[in-house]
Design a protein that fits this description.
The protein is of the alpha+beta class. It contains 18 helices and 22 strands.
């Protein structure tokens, strides 16, 4: 039974004019590694403020967050309202059919906490969920499209927990702007149209999604046109009236499970899985870097541990002295990344299911020993995981170094009370499972597990599929404080396992190289995930020099989605990734 035809939608959406600065011109790079900027990378939109700031990946979401903050809402309130809008206007990236990781600073209590709203595997899922009958791993889209890869959505439970702890405005009021936009219509972005053009052949397992996104079955919704989503409006109206629990134990849950299990690539999700889901509070993982305190999301995200592992290694090198235009800087960053990803791929997974070294990977002596492996002049021939002092494994383990297509969105928000939110949310790959139910898309997050549970020797992978387990992520919602405990940077990104490198580069740019946040955002991406040094197309002129340095180099486009807030000289400077549609708005 569908709920939307029976719910009346009577809402009013109020737009707000915010204090948004004009586009900020970014200085060109030094001639030593000057690059031809890609489209829009020469300019970054910024906003400045002293009271509050919101940055998201879409103007409609940022405007809604700004409006909530302007009315006295908290960062938690603004994030909830903005996320509901993102699920409508940027459906390829996130939504209530997915999950999220939240890092939050509670200013009144001087407390930092994080919430794990990651999806879970169905209780009946086995380790060979993505193994074919011939014993080989499925192809990515063979696994991702349809119900097989749908995990129990965790976003709403995470937002509910956040609202219970930090919300000031009524839950129903926070959903209203998204309901109104869905009912009255929103403007389809060119980026959404372009994403749909690339994906048309993959919308083949669910008629509802195909009809919504491709009105004539072949051509996508057109950029600049007005589109409604009455089912999504009805779903949010139902959630506004009945609360989050109605998503997990009511008609919405039944609709979701039915869609997953009846799909031609059927999944295992059950009503019991929905009933049992809980978001989990976890301790953020923090470590020092150049006198600052860097905090992010711990396992089952690999974000914090890998990012802090990299920074801990790099602290043994004088990047400031070498500078951003010195190829040796990028070589050393790449080598530190290779070492950290080797540890990530070997150890990191859901800590409720797998014993991991966790914070032992950040032990100063261990990081010093890893840094000692780096030759400042040439790449290491091979890289393997380390063994930190005190670590004893329960069983042999194998590497899971698989790389999956990117997706996701990020929100950075500071409210008028000094609270800070860094939240990364996702339905995994673009458009998730391509299954639509009650107006929203379902995730394909289970493809973040290892497709094969063990290696050729039979050694199990920490990130293998298990019932109830949360797949490893790379989401890195980060907040950085100075030595006095004052915040200096809020940051995170979209982009799959590249997220860690995207965030790392901006932290180094701001802390080591004194770059403005606008310059840092516009700089071409350069990162390493263990196989090749990757250079964004906009920085193609770096490729050949880095190859001559000894690195295999891959040049291409990179689907980042950075949002950041930099605290500087008594002001907040918000900046959105020029590669996406986002904006910053502050007061």
């Amino acid at each position: 039974m569908r709920i939307w035809p029976f719910i009346a939608i009577l809402l009013v959406f109020s737009s707000t004019n915010a204090n948004v600065s004009v586009m900020a011109q970014v200085r060109p790079a030094s001639p030593e590694i000057a690059t031809k900027r890609g489209k829009n990378l020469n300019k970054v939109q910024i906003a400045t403020g002293t009271k509050f700031m919101a940055v998201t990946a879409h103007p409609d979401a940022t405007k809604v967050a700004y409006d909530v903050l302007n009315k006295g809402g908290t960062a938690a309130d603004a994030a909830i309202a903005a996320q509901m809008v993102l699920g409508l206007v940027e459906p390829q990236s996130s939504g209530i059919g997915g999950g999220a990781f939240i890092t939050y600073y509670d200013a009144a209590n001087d407390k930092l906490f994080s919430i794990d709203g990651r999806e879970t595997a169905p209780a009946t899922a086995g380790s060979h969920l993505f193994t074919r009958d011939d014993g080989k791993a499925m192809g990515f889209y063979q696994a991702a499209n349809g119900g097989r890869a749908v995990g129990t959505p965790g976003l709403l439970r995470a937002l509910e927990k956040l609202h219970n702890w930090q919300g000031k405005m009524p839950w129903k009021d926070l959903l209203q702007p998204a309901i109104t936009l869905a009912a009255d219509g929103f403007t389809v972005s060119d980026r959404l149209q372009q994403s749909l053009q690339k994906e048309v052949s993959r919308f083949d397992t669910d008629t509802a999604a195909k009809i919504y996104f491709y009105p004539d079955t072949t051509h996508p919704a057109k950029g600049g046109t007005i589109k409604t989503n009455k089912e999504y409006a009805a779903t949010l109206t139902y959630l506004a009236a009945n609360g989050v629990s109605s998503f997990y134990d009511d008609v919405l849950a039944r609709n979701l499970v039915e869609k997953v299990r009846k799909n031609k690539n059927a999944g295992l999700l059950s009503i019991e899985d929905m009933n049992d889901y809980q978001a989990v509070e976890r301790m953020p993982v923090c470590n020092g870097y150049r006198g600052y305190k860097v905090c992010s999301m711990g396992q089952p995200s690999s974000g914090a541990l890998t990012l802090l592992n990299m920074l801990g290694i790099l602290e043994h090198f004088d990047l400031r002295k070498m500078g951003k235009d010195n190829l040796q800087s990028w070589h050393i960053i790449a080598e530190a990344s290779r070492l950290a990803f080797a540890d990530r791929n070997h150890y990191m997974a859901d800590p409720d299911f797998v014993k991991t070294p966790d914070r032992l990977l950040l032990d100063p002596a261990y990081l010093k020993s890893r840094a000692a492996l780096i030759n400042p002049k040439t790449p290491m021939p091979t890289v393997s995981h380390g063994v930190p002092a005190g670590w004893v494994a329960d069983e042999p383990q194998a590497q899971d170094a698989s790389i999956k297509p990117p997706g996701t969105t990020h929100l950075s928000i500071v409210d008028g009370y000094g609270n800070i939110l860094s939240m990364t949310s996702s339905i995994e790959n673009a458009f998730g499972s391509r299954i639509m139910v009650d107006g929203y898309l379902l995730n394909n997050q289970l493809t973040d597990f290892a497709f094969k549970p063990s290696d050729e020797k039979g050694h199990p992978k920490a990130n293998r599929v298990e019932g109830g387990k949360r797949p490893r992520s790379s989401m890195s919602p980060t907040i950085i404080f100075d030595a006095a405990g004052e915040p200096i940077l809020v940051i995170g990104s979209a982009g799959g396992s590249r997220i860690i490198g995207f965030v790392l580069q901006r932290i180094i740019s701001v802390i080591d190289w004194d770059m403005s946040i606008a310059e840092a955002m516009a700089a071409p991406h350069v990162l390493h995930r263990g196989k090749k040094l990757e250079v964004e197309s906009a920085g193609v002129e770096m490729a050949e020099p880095l190859k001559s340095f000894g690195h295999p180099v891959l040049v291409g486009e990179m689907n980042s989605g950075l949002t950041a807030i930099h605290f500087k000289k008594g002001k907040m400077i918000g900046a959105a990734d020029p590669r996406r549609d986002g904006i910053a708005m502050g007061e």
